[in-house]
Amino acid sequence: MPQEKPKSGKSHGRLKITASHKPRALMDDTPELVGAWEARVITLFPQAFPGVLGESLTGKALSEGLWRLGLVDLRLFGEGKHRNVDDTPAGGGAGMVLRADVLGRALDAASEGTPVEREDWPIIYLSPRGKPLDQAMAQRFSRAKGMTVLCGRFEGVDERVLEEYDIEEVSLGDFILTGGEIAAQAMLDATVRLLPGVLGNEASAEEESFSNGLLEHPQYTRPTTWRGRTIPEVLTSGHHGKVEAWRREMGEKITQERRPDLWEKRKG
How many angstroms separate the most distant Cα atoms in the chain? Predict the structure, then answer.
């Protein structure tokens, strides 16, 4: 089947993000990017990326080459003149399902040059029936060499694809989105910010909610008094030991009140 020319790329700092058949066409192979953590996203809407990932710290890290973003346009692997990517569900029912043959071609292309072991390179499908995304999962992803992310649409994907490629299903929560692109960006943001050098201050990631099994303590800054509300005195005492004890106590209190499930898990 003849290949279409890749769509024009969106310039982002030193990187050029494009959607193509071939993963190597997805990013500039400059020496400074060798070994950088990489995300390859299979989507029907490549124009949705980098989206929020191109802003703030993740965008700065992307332009500096601390991580790479490659986009695979699923439509380019479609069937026939109209490049169809979906069909009606086997057994009947509403909606459409992404085809196994189409997804297989896209996944094969996206897998070019990646590690075979899923520990080193997980393939993730954003799905309401997946395991809930949490901080521990993001940390695990950040320790890999990169990941492939499949953004679903319609009624989902052919189950055989999930089995064939040992795909891990991940959920953003107990609700339904029209597609996986928003969830993919949230998951990638949670992962990329944990990569070395992205946050700048490594202690920030260690002190955040969920990093130690607790929700984060309250935060305050200037002015000391605002609309009659003052910063807790202990935080302006200069006594680091008391500050740490207060923060831990407040983290435990908030966790017990707002997330008893996390508190029970921590005690267990």
Answer: 71
Q: In terms of Cα–Cα distance, which of 122, 146, 150 is closest to 195?
A: 146
Q: State yes or no: cis peptide before 50, omega within 30 of 0.
A: yes
Instruction: Give the span between the Cα atoms of 48 and 27, in whole angstroms.
Output: 17
Q: Name all domains of the chain by residue range, CATH numbers in brackets.
A: 10-192 (3.40.1280.10), 209-267 (1.10.1270.20)
What tokens does 6 get?
Answer: 């890749």
Tell me the pTM: 0.84
Task: List Cβ neighbours of 190 (8 Å cut-off, separation of 6 or more).
Answer: 133, 135, 138
Q: What is the pLDDT along the chain (268 residues), one digit of tens a residue?
A: 444 444 444 445 444 455 566 544 344 443 355 789 999 999 999 999 999 999 999 999 999 999 999 999 999 999 999 999 999 999 999 999 999 999 999 999 999 999 999 999 999 999 999 999 999 999 999 999 999 999 999 999 999 999 999 999 999 999 999 999 999 999 999 999 999 999 986 645 555 556 678 999 999 999 999 999 999 999 999 999 999 999 999 999 999 999 999 999 888 7
DSSP SS3 for 32: helix
